[in-house]
Amino acid sequence: MLAPIQESFNYLKPFYNQAKIGIILGTGLGALVNEIEIEHAIPYDQIPHFPVSTVESHRGKLLFGKLNQVPVIVMQGRFHYYEGYSMQQVTFPVRILKLLGIQTLFISNASGGLNPNFKVSDLMLINDHINLLPEHPLRGKNDDDLGPRFPDMSEPYDTKLIALAKEIAAEQNITLQEGVYTAVQGPALETPAEYKYLRIIGGDTVGMSTIPENIVARHMGMRVFAVSVITDLGVPGFIKKISLQDVLQAAALAEPNLTRLISEMVKRI
Description:
By secondary structure, the protein is an alpha/beta fold.
């Protein structure tokens, strides 16, 4: 096993809380933290070899605690390729989560809606993805201790967890969309022609994250459940100038439903 991974794991091992569930919180989706009984909050810059969040909407702490009395480890803020990190750095924390005992990974993100049936602040369950990022997190020599050279991706997002989410949403009157997430490099948002292209090739949303974490999690045998919050629309006739503040406001409107959904899922797994 690579020395940096081992060193980070050794640093975090004393905080081990028997968690089997990990959660990565995306842009503006921090309200779930208010539902967590936090036992330890460790800034990323204190963890050996961890990258540091450079995006203002990402707090940058690793949280150990309980959600609905269930032990969890939560990444309060993630890393992106556009920040200048390599894909190995972007996905480094996922490796550590697995070594800390995480078996199921929840991922959330803010994304632009490509499907004309979507509205701002909708939640979309990700059932597949299209990877348009310029670098792959598994490129290079494979470490067989971490996972196979050619991991299967026939079920990138766990179908049983998707079914559970739909069941809970029906019980709690939460409207869910479902579809394919596309990831691009960023940080510039897409042009109208790019939105059109992404829709033509099968995308329902577009963002700049999630897929690298998913690939590495599947490489290590973790189950993955992911949700996009639609924060703007890349649909002809609805494309307009947006700012980070617009994205955060749209995400804030979706937070209560996303918090209820994930909290209940964690309890039932």
